[in-house]
Amino acid sequence: MINRFRPWIAVILSGIMLSFLSCSLRDDERALTEMVEKAASMAERHEFGGIMDLATEDFRAYPGDLDRRGAKKVLFMAFRYYGELRIIHPQPSIDLEAADDFASMMVPFLIVRKDQPLPELKDLYKKPKEWLERAGEHADLYRFKLKAVKAGGEWLVKEAYLERFTGLGFNP
């Protein structure tokens, strides 16, 4: 009798494991998306320290091969240039490698002075390609390619590649 149920037990256990893994991946995607939203919010408030708290100790930023200190200087110059600003972005594209606690993300975004009018983009949050097309008609666009690692249960950015949209594509 037990031998008859053994295959079903394996199927049920496999289903439970896949369900757990799927929930874990969705939780990681949600955590990474929230990290991007938190970083954008802190940038709008010019919170250098808070942004750098989202990075690993060995963080690198490109182009320029900047460490944490160099990246902080670039942030300072950008904040000074824009003054009060808004950062607008669609939902990040996330590629998770759960076994390695590693993620790659692509985040197109634009930075505008706080009082600059823009087209309505909220309805395109989950459609990054369409978001890019509409936003690109009205502002300069950038894209972050981020590499993140999970350390102590928390996602942190290890590398950030900043690219500017030139009209033909993104270039560093």
Descriptors for this entry?
172 residues, alpha+beta, 7-stranded mixed sheet
Question: What this model shows, in words?
Answer:
The structure is a single chain. This protein is α+β, with helices and mostly antiparallel strands. The protein has four helices and seven strands, in the order H-H-E-H-E-E-E-H-E-E-E. It has helices spanning 2-44, 48-52, 68-82, 128-136; strands spanning 55-62, 85-88, 93-97, 102-113, 141-151, 154-165, 170-171. Strands 1, 2, 3, 4, 5, 6 and 7 form a seven-stranded mixed β-sheet that branches. The longest helix has 43 residues, at 2-44. It is globular, with a radius of gyration of 20 Å. Residues 7-23 have low confidence and may be disordered.
The average pLDDT value, as a whole number, equals 80
Helix-and-strand structural type: alpha+beta
- Oligomeric category: single chain
Separation of the first and last Cα atoms: 65 Å
* Secondary structure: helix percent: 40-55%
Q: What order do the helices and strands follow?
A: HHEHEEEHEEE
Enumerate the spans where pLDDT stays under 50 for 5 or more consecutive residues: 7-23
